[in-house]
Amino acid sequence: MEQSATLDIETLKITQEQFILASQSLHLQRPGCDAVYPVGLYGWRKRCLYFFLLLLLVTMIVNLALTVWIIKVMNFSVGGMGNLQLSEDGIRLEGISEFLLPLYVNEIQSRRDSLLVLRSEKNVTMNVRNDQGQLTGQLTVGPEAVEAQCQRLEVRSKDGGRLLFTANEEEVIMTTEKFTITGSEGAVFGHSVETPLIRARASEDLKLESPTRTLTMEAPRGVEVSAAKGPLKVSGRKDLQLESTEGEILLDANTIQLGSLPLGIYTASPTQASQELAVYEVCVCPSGKIYLSPAESSSTCQAMSNICLWS
User: Fold this and answer.
1) CA-CA distance, 265 to 301, in Å (whole number)?
2) What's the burial of 141, exposed, middle or buried (CB within 10 Å: 0-12/13-18/19+)?
3) What count of Cα atoms within 13 Å lies in the side-chain half-sphere of residue 255?
């Protein structure tokens, strides 16, 4: 009995030693299994994250403020933007507008109480094209000239009903009641001019002149040249010819004066020729030259042939 008790006590001691060793081995391995690692951002990483979040917030606030300022300055609304108003009829612009590229519109109209001004540093060009895109008309307003390229150019009155001026490749027609030229040099026509009346102003003279060529006036039923309240002067550098093929030339006036005519001397009676006579007769040479001769009881033109010989 004592031996079995001793074995039991020894077995118990061995078991306690094994438990202690086992517990010690577990105690030694526990620190490695129960190690705690920190989770999250700490230190300079955390400060950088907060800095970027703050910078993003500031950027968002500045962007929102700039957007509100742009909307306020540009005056954005449902109907348009600032001076640009959108409507069912089209677009309405107030003030000065600048277009950097071509503008395609059907109609440009100003307000009733203002003018329509098209301004450019070089020129203003308006083009008209057909359905195929071909150019059919062009109006160019430049610093030196205004050019219009079209098949027919028309100028109408302010009500749009009366045609005042039209031009095409064949002719130019003016339908106004009066066409006035106020230039100091008058008007120069390279070819013929067809008109029913040429008249000067009330206080000015009318002058028809051809410096290097002839001046011809023709009409199927006659040409009338009249000066109602002043003299009529016809002069030429060389010959002045009045010709009537089927009628007569009529000089109808109270007084007809032919100045600067040569004066002939009547050689048949020298005593009478020396006297100053107030009466003369007009003689015509066969060449057409006209001269004066002292009047006598009979014609003295035949006796005075020296004037005709001089011509």
Assistant:
1) 10
2) middle
3) 3
Cα within 13 Å of Cα(58), Cβ side: 6
* 244, amino acid identity: S
Angle, vertex CA 275, rays to CA 270 and CA 278, nearest 5: 125
User: Percent of the chain having pLDDT more than 70?
Assistant: 80
CB 264 within 8 A of CB 299: no
Q: Locate 61 and state its tokens.
A: 């606030």
Q: What pLDDT is attached to residue 150?
A: 87
Strand order in the sheet with 84-86: 76-77, 80-81, 84-86, 91-93
**Cα–Cα distance measured from residue 117 to residue 109, given in angstroms and rounded to the nearest whole number:** 10
For residue 305, the model assigns a pLDDT of 63
d(CA 232, CA 241): 16
- Over residues 273-279, the mean pLDDT reads 57
pLDDT reading at 214 higher than 70: yes
Segment holding 21, helix H or strand E: helix 2-33
pLDDT score, position 54: 95
